[in-house]
């Protein structure tokens, strides 16, 4: 995934583990992911590629039903900032009934901005601080500003397995590792737990 001429390409992780009935339309999680990708297109983010859909154990364990996860690459119109892109993702989440009262709660839709081109935000020191956060602190703390690339992406099979479908050669701007290299460094059991849905999408 390289920077697009006159614009950017972004990586987005998608997930859902609760059904949605927003707007009177009943949707299972996989349908919510499909609808979200279409909704993003109407807001100017055009999907370049989309992974298969995967069934993934809920994280943290025991917090709810299993997830359906996917990843997508989008083209972004020129001039749109990473903060504006994140706000747009949150708008789509809210349109599908997502609320943010409880961290790590089950979700009708989760859209995570993983990377915007090769940008490191807000700066390398802040990224490093959040990247090195202990698990106990991860469960109770959240940054008050956008941190890119997503500090946890290299640890999560439910992110890297779908991402390897569509952007295996994308290179992390801090570690220098490709998606494939980060994927292959994860424990075998973690990778095996992320299973393609029978129909793929």
UniProtKB/TrEMBL annotation:
Top-level enzyme category: transferase
Pfam families from the UniProt entry: HPPK
Pathway(s) it belongs to: Cofactor biosynthesis; tetrahydrofolate biosynthesis; 2-amino-4-hydroxy-6-hydroxymethyl-7,8-dihydropteridine diphosphate from 7,8-dihydroneopterin triphosphate: step 4/4
UniProt-listed Enzyme Commission number(s): 2.7.6.3
MF terms in GO: 2-amino-4-hydroxy-6-hydroxymethyldihydropteridine diphosphokinase activity; ATP binding; kinase activity
InterPro entries (UniProt xref): Hppk, Hppk_sf
Transferase is among the record's keywords: yes
Keyword Chloroplast: no
Residues covered by the 7,8-dihydro-6-hydroxymethylpterin-pyrophosphokinase domain: 12-168
Single Gene Ontology BP annotation: tetrahydrofolate biosynthetic process
Protein function: Catalyzes the transfer of pyrophosphate from adenosine triphosphate (ATP) to 6-hydroxymethyl-7,8-dihydropterin, an enzymatic step in folate biosynthesis pathway.
PANTHER family assigned to the protein according to its UniProt record, in alphabetical order: 2-AMINO-4-HYDROXY-6-HYDROXYMETHYLDIHYDROPTERIDINE PYROPHOSPHOKINASE
Name the UniProt record assigns to this protein: 2-amino-4-hydroxy-6-hydroxymethyldihydropteridine pyrophosphokinase
Native species: Pseudorhodobacter turbinis
């Amino acid at each position: 995934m390289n920077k697009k001429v006159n614009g950017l390409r972004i990586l987005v992780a998608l997930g859902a583990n609760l059904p949605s009935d927003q707007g009177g339309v009943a949707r299972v999680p996989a349908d919510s992911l499909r609808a979200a990708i279409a909704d993003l297109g109407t807001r100017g983010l055009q999907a370049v590629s989309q992974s298969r859909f995967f069934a993934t154990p809920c994280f943290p364990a025991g917090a709810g039903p299993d997830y359906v996860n996917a990843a997508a690459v989008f083209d972004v119109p020129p001039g749109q900032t990473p903060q504006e892109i994140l706000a747009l993702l949150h708008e789509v989440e809210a349109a599908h009934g997502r609320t943010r009262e409880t961290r790590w709660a089950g979700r009708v839709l989760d859209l995570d901005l993983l990377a915007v081109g090769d940008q490191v935000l807000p700066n390398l020191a802040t990224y490093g601080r959040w990247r090195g956060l202990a698990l106990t602190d991860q469960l109770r703390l959240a940054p008050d500003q956008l941190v890119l690339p997503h500090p946890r992406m290299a640890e999560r099979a439910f992110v890297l397995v779908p991402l390897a479908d569509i952007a295996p050669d994308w290179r992390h701007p801090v570690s220098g590792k490709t998606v494939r290299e980060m994927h292959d460094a994860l424990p075998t059991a973690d990778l095996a737990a992320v299973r393609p849905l029978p129909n793929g999408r």
